Amino acid sequence: MLIEENPTKYQVFINGIRYGAPQPTVQLAEALLATLTPDQRSLAEVQPVSTDGKQLLFG
């Protein structure tokens, strides 16, 4: 059985809109949050994405 590994990256979204480039670690994505204004930061979230930029849904 062949198992493909698709590395996860982390994307910052502000009010549902992508901000910046996908980051290889959560810590780097959270560092991007520090560059935002307080208003933007309250609307921002870090979400996992695949290397081709598609959102990963866990549930």
Description:
- It is built from two helices and three strands.
- It is elongated and about 40 Å long.
- The two termini are 25 Å apart.
- The longest helix is centred in the middle third of the chain and has 8 residues, at 26-33.
- It has helices spanning 26-33, 38-43; strands spanning 8-14, 17-23, 44-50.
- With 59 residues, it is α+β, with helices and mostly antiparallel strands.
- The model has no long low-confidence stretch (mean pLDDT 88).
- It has a three-stranded antiparallel β-sheet.
Our Rg estimate from Cα atoms comes to 13 Å
SSE string: EEHHE
Low-confidence stretches: none
Helix percent band: 10-25%
Could you tell me how far the N terminus lies from the C terminus, measured between alpha carbons in angstroms? 25 Å
Query: What is the count of DSSP helices, taking H or I runs of 4+ residues?
Result: 2
Mean pLDDT: 88
Main sheet attributes: strand count, strand direction, barrel closure: 3 strands, antiparallel
User: What is the strand arrangement across the widest sheet?
Assistant: 2-1-3
Shape designation: elongated
Derived structural class: alpha+beta
Describe the protein's topology:
Elements: E1 8-14, E2 17-23, H1 26-33, H2 38-43, E3 44-50
Antiparallel strand pairs: 1-2, 1-3
In short:
This protein has 2 helices and 3 strands, in the order ββααβ. The protein has 59 residues and is of the alpha+beta class. A hairpin with a 2-residue loop joins β1 and β2.
